[in-house]
């Protein structure tokens, strides 16, 4: 008997395809028609669409889809570092590796598994990786799409080394916006932030919401676990909920910087905004056998609904 459209079939909600480099991609679908696409290149969510089929994540028209180059857009995973320091490539190596399907995912207790489609991936260091970053780890990633079309990412990083190691981390989420001048972020007011445009000097946020009129590259510290990105042009709000991720990165390259970024169109900064759940200021340290979990839940709601309920 074939799949009946009336019955929501969990297996039919997950489809594995290949991109044009022959790398597996997994498409998750919700009963109402929302979808998410996850590439095994980087464990990266490369698309997230609402139930009307509208793309919610930004991808540059000039993005380079070829390993080992990370793709500009979607949700790259920055591990074991964010930014540039030491011998590792910018934002670490996890976003440039080919991940594997995790055949042995540990059970995670979801309150609601009904109508939820999930995929479990795993990254372990290669011999090459251990030369640049000599720490044995297992990085398990679960990406889920709920029945309502919300996107959940859960990263669990375990130290299987004989000695402690430290890392920083970010879900470097590129949101698609109508126009950057129409966007504001709520939930980061009065917080301290490190300004990457001023040698990471520490400032305190003065505005009652963050709006954009120039390049912004900041790490907001000890942030609340719910942050909202309000897009007046689209009359919709992204709600970002996070656990285990104390910091929030806010980045928009603006006009001048955009022109120097090879894989970003000169005007594309107007349609994108990065707001990342992250752990940067105080790196995570794991003793042998210890595990860290960082969770991100993304949803999108009509703006009128959001301001009342946040």
Automatic annotation (TrEMBL):
The answer to whether UniProt assigns keyword Protein transport to this entry is no
GO molecular function, one example? glucose-6-phosphate 1-epimerase activity
EC number(s) from the headed UniProt entry: 5.1.3.15
**GO BP annotations listed:** carbohydrate metabolic process
Where does it sit, as one GO cellular component term?
A: cytoplasm
Tell me yes or no: is Isomerase among this UniProt entry's keywords: yes
What UniProt keywords are attached to this protein's entry? Isomerase
**Residues at which substrate binds:** 72, 90, 95
Q: Which reaction does it catalyse?
A: alpha-D-glucose 6-phosphate = beta-D-glucose 6-phosphate
Group of enzyme by EC = isomerase
The record's Pfam families line, in alphabetical order, gives:
Aldose_epim
Highest taxon of source = Eukaryota
**Signal peptide bounds:** none
Family (UniProt) = Belongs to the glucose-6-phosphate 1-epimerase family.
Instruction: Specify the protein name.
Output: glucose-6-phosphate 1-epimerase
The primary gene name is: LOC104600300
